[in-house]
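Exercise (ungraded).
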Amino acid sequence: MMPTRASRIQVVLVLFLMLVLQFYVRPRLWGPRVSPDFLFLGLMLVALRSSPGIAALAGFLVGLAGDALTPARFGAGMLANTVVGYFASWGRAVFFADNILVNAAFVGVGLWVRDLLTLLLSGAGDRPLLAELTVYSPLEALATAAFALLVLLASRQWFSVRLEA
Amino acid sequence: MASASDRSYTRRDTVLFFVCVGLSVVALVTPTRIGLALADALRETALAPLVWLQARAEEGRTSRVRFREVTAQRDSSAYLAQGLPSLLAENERLRQLLSLRRRLSSSYVAAEVLHQSTATDGRTLLLSAGSSQGVSPFDPVVSPEGLIGVVLSTAERTSIAMTWAHPEFRVSAFTVTGNAAGVVAPSLSAVSGEGALEFRGVPYRDSVPPGSLVLSSGLGGVYPKGIPVGTVTGLVREQAGWERVYRLLPAANPGSVGHVLVLIAPPSSDLAAAFPSDSLLKAQRLDSLLRARLADSLAQAARDAAAARRDSLARVRRRAAPADSAAASATPAAPAPPPPAPVRGDSAR
């Protein structure tokens, strides 16, 4: 089913809301390393609705913004987000049902994989990488997944997801 | 069977994916300098509204959180400031007595830290001050707790700081007691996620007890002397009996810091006054030599004067002695002659 013009506008509004949340609300929340990643949530929402190619392009742009703002290793974020965006869209079409809980978990797992790829590509040491992947990334993934649940509940019709398990 | 339109759709997706991956790989292998320049340009153009939005949010948060702290600090500072003029005067007197130069006072720019959601946030930080505020590459970044890092690149309104958690970070340091000096670098094998530092290159003969505060030494010309870097928590390793490496608990945590100071050097500042060059040291040595020679010549003059005085006294006594004996033989009851007048050394010369 092709998305209508109205639903497109609604999705764009949700993405704009994610941008505002990321850059205006997130700094006011608790610890910066465990707050929800609204930009990544926006990427996953695009991946839920779009083809893998568009999701890859969105991931590239999200990664480009991330790398411009924290250039610890320029390009690592781009590659990680591109790969996660593409495979999230492709995986959703092939494996996942349109279930709200599954989609929220999908967001959390995607964020953890994105962090894993970013850390590996940016050359982190063994133990900091382990601590990041076992402590901070899961906490951030959990917070992002919880917020994804709220967003999907509020806009489930726009993203074509079901409430029942 | 897939239709022709479905196949082209898939082909377009694959092409887009590989194009994005290719561009990302190119960005990864691009030299750091070009990558940083590209990041600066993006922050100043496409991302400028978002950075502005985040800077306002950070200002709002930090101003709310720090209001009570700042009020308390202001009150404490006001109380301490009452005794400051006398302390400054005393300090100036003592420095003059010891012939010490005036301490360097560097300017600073306050900046908010704009934390990002990526996993590498903490190794580099985005600061809300840039070249328009006077920030330039290699300016030290500090927080009230201690050293955070150094500015890596600057755009007009933002800058990127490399923190001590970055693998390429190094700072020359010494213990507050002055008994050991070395280089502080990040520990890539830290157990905690917050990271730790290593105090490397400490000579084997120097042992540093746990709890010792480590400060920047000022060597290298990037970090001023005396910024707290960390506290020694234990020995990491000893290398072949010639070097000890200690673990440091960092003084400041870049992952949670919200407000920093960028120490900027005014363009006209002359660091030579604080770090004497070879020619200045030579002049100081010559001056010392001259003073020593002058002191030697004065001592020699004093010695000559004393000798002349002794000679003069001896001559007077020799002249007086035959007369006394002659007088004693002629008139034994005659009174003794008056004592010779004292002779000043400088006049004897």
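Further reading is listed at the end of the chapter. For now, observe: The longest strand of chain B covers residues 228-239. Chain B is about 40% helix and 25% strand.
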